[in-house]
Amino acid sequence: MASEKIELIKEAIKARESAVIAFSGGVDSATLAAFAFEVLGERALAVTINSPLFPRTQLEIAVKTACEIGIEHKILSFSQLSLPYFSANTLNRCYFCKKALLEALLDFAEKSGYNAVLEGTNSSEIHGENRPGYRAVQEAGEMVFSPFVDFNVTKEEIREFASELSLSAASRPSAACLATRIPYGQPITAEALQKIEKAEEFLFSLGFTQFRVRMHENLARIEVIQSEFEHALRKREKISRHLKSLGFDYVTLDLEGFRSGSMDEPYTLKKA
Question: Which of 13, 38, 133, 197 is the most exposed place for a label (fewest CB within 10 A)?
Answer without folding.
Answer: 38
